[in-house]
């Protein structure tokens, strides 16, 4: 299997992100609106386990991203000196999430969204809170071990995802006979493989492990890593005061050890309302963030 030298990768791909000093008073449009309404709109993906997923009972959605955003919301509440804020959770589809943030329909998107250069032209991203890689979900025993095995077969990707970009790039490099089907949600992609209407589903590897655990049929996550996907909370790029506050709070959560504690809850413990543990240790890039948090980002890269 292809391996990634994360130390070299970090050295070549780190792009500086300026960390501004916290201001004593905030006047950004997003923060002003939150202060006036007392509401923070949080976007989430209903099938983005363990980052965000629908509560099977009642109440707020669950997940790693949801808990991180709850901490950010608390920091916003304290900074603008409100006694309480209402967290309004808004489900968003992959294809609509960027526009939802850019148009102010949601204030924070707390799921598995990759920080890419193209997306940063429209929205802003917090410090990365996970590093994923695009891989394949297939039926166990299918004989598919890598994307090259999909010649003449069907691959499913989600609309507006980095996986769709990778699929199209691979079709132009010797996989012209691979059929690519685009669906709206990750759950639909996994169900297509489980139900036999597609041969493979491509998305972030950590999501695939969750779908594998929930599938009706034996499934496997296969193939070498096809990308480096820095996942992060997304928010408006038009409010520098909000950016300063989010960067400050993310740095605090990393340096205090809170991020590591949250990580263990969602990646190395039994998942709430689920009967399994993903048992995934931090990879080299995330381990580096835990030990040496910084305001640098690793850009999305297709391998």
Automatic annotation (TrEMBL):
**Which GO BP terms apply?**
amino acid transport
User: What are the boundaries of the signal sequence?
Assistant: 1-27
What InterPro entries does the database record attribute to this sequence? Bact_solute-bind_prot3, Solute-binding_3/MltF_N
Keyword Transport (UniProt): yes
Cellular compartments per GO CC: extracellular region; outer membrane-bounded periplasmic space
A Pfam family:
SBP_bac_3
Where do the Solute-binding protein family 3/N-terminal domain residues begin and end?
39-270
What keywords were assigned to this record? Signal, Transport
Look up keyword GTP-binding and say if it applies.
no
Q: What protein family is recorded?
A: Belongs to the bacterial solute-binding protein 3 family.
Protein name as annotated? Amino acid ABC transporter substrate-binding protein
The organism named in the record is Rhodoferax aquaticus
